[in-house]
Design goal:
Blueprint (H helix, E strand, L loop, with lengths): L1 E4 L12 H11 L3 E5 L5 H10 L3 E6 L14 H13 L5 E4 L6 H15 L1
Parallel strand pairs: 1-2, 2-3, 3-4
Helix pairs in contact: 3-4
Amino acid sequence: MITLDLNYDGTFFFGQRPEEIADEFRIHHPLALALATYGYGHETLRRLRDVTKVSLGLLLDPFGHASERSEHQPIEWLAECLTPLLDERLIRYCGLSCTVPSIEYVEAISRLVADRES
């Protein structure tokens, strides 16, 4: 599995757009690609889905970029970030970063994903 961080402008931290790295996924065949989006990047996920066959997931960081936020995002933020992606079936899995403030975050994600699978 490969994990990549996204910039606000839809590029990866090394400056490339999804279409520019799609060939790498076809050559190296990763099992999955996880994107750390910090609550944005929905359009990038859509573009990745369109240019690669790699299973896509999302890594949410409720603390966000430490330099930009001084406190964790509320649990409602998770639903706001995940619901459209789950509804569109853009992601197949979701994880949380090591900055998760409580088990309630994990439970909230589990419920959101379970609700979409039933």
